[in-house]
Specification:
TIM Barrel, 8-stranded parallel sheet, 11 helices
Length: 304
């Protein structure tokens, strides 16, 4: 093992919500919003945004109470804030969001985001790319308002999108505005971009790679999280982070069998190399229950 990059603490991350009602968010559909007149739309969004800010504060409290130091905000936190009507309303909450972000910082809670599947920077369509950048600007604005740094610490990780478009993807990244470019990271997936392909993109663009071990074993049809390629890819991805201790990885387990792409409720199997991962997002269906299980079992095992 690479002793110079070993870590002493594994921070397990909560993804968006809890199985209980402790961490939940409100939303509104486009159809519902557009059925209202403009004034009513503004009031609807104002009430929704205020409620969701309160719920971020509840999420921070929940994470603190449960010894969770990594939290992924939902990508649907402030619906329609990528449009002028939502942008204007969100600006009204600048002070509240600043206080919320400071609260997270004071509680040593790392906040990250995972923009949705509509972000495709490798598309052949310039309109799709423009819309993708628009969505990323919305998330970057949220992180700015939450007083999160423009750095890899406040990671916004996305997938590669349209396959076999590595050059297009690299070109799109190079054109991103600073508030996005400084936070963006890429994650490997089962279909379009293998770990090796995403690693190439990250090296060429000088952005971090978020290594998802389950995506990797599904894509490569491996029988173990301890396969040499899992270990090698973890360490290679670590080198793409400006500060190696900021490296973030993902883990899930297959629902019906090891290579099942559907996520299990809990985590029963962890890559041994993740003993050296500082920040691990737990992508299990039972959210905080899966984290508690790992805290009580995996984290208490004697490390080799």
């Amino acid at each position: 093992m690479k002793a110079e990059t070993q870590t002493v603490k594994n921070n397990l991350g909560l993804v968006c919500i809890t199985t209980t009602d402790a961490v939940r968010y409100k939303t509104v559909t486009r159809k519902t919003l557009l059925a209202l007149d403009v004034a009513a739309q503004v009031e609807k969004l104002r009430a929704l945004y205020e409620e969701n800010i309160n719920r971020i504060n509840s999420a921070i409290d929940f994470c603190k109470a449960n010894n969770i130091n990594l939290y992924r905000l939902t990508s649907g936190l402030f619906p329609f804030s990528d449009e002028k009507i939502g942008m204007d309303v969100l600006e009204e909450f600048t002070e509240q969001l600043s206080e919320t972000g400071k609260k997270a910082n004071e509680n040593n809670l790392r906040i990250v985001m995972h923009p949705d599947q509509f972000v495709v920077l490798s598309s052949d369509s310039e309109n799709v790319i423009e819309n993708s950048v628009k969505i990323l600007r919305m998330h970057a604005k949220t992180l700015d308002l939450l007083q999160q740094p423009r750095s890899e610490w406040a990671t916004m990780n996305i997938h590669g999108g349209k396959g076999d478009r590595t050059d297009k993807l690299v070109n799109s990244v190079e054109k991103l505005p600073e508030e996005i470019r400084t936070r963006i990271a890429f994650e490997n997936d089962e279909y379009s971009y293998s770990s090796a392909q995403i690693l190439e993109v990250c090296r060429r663009t000088r952005v971090p790679m978020v290594f998802d071990a389950h995506h990797h074993v599904c894509r490569e049809k491996l029988g173990s999280y301890n396969h040499p390629s899992v270990v090698d890819t973890f360490w290679a991805a670590r080198e793409t982070w400006a500060t190696p201790e900021n490296q973030m990885v993902h883990i899930s387990n297959g629902r019906e069998h090891f290579q099942d792409r559907a996520h299990h409720d809990l985590i029963f199997d962890m890559p041994e190399v993740f003993r050296y991962a500082s920040w691990i997002e737990i992508e299990a269906k039972h959210k905080e229950i899966a984290i508690t299980k790992l805290q009580n079992e995996w984290l208490k095992e004697v490390k080799n």
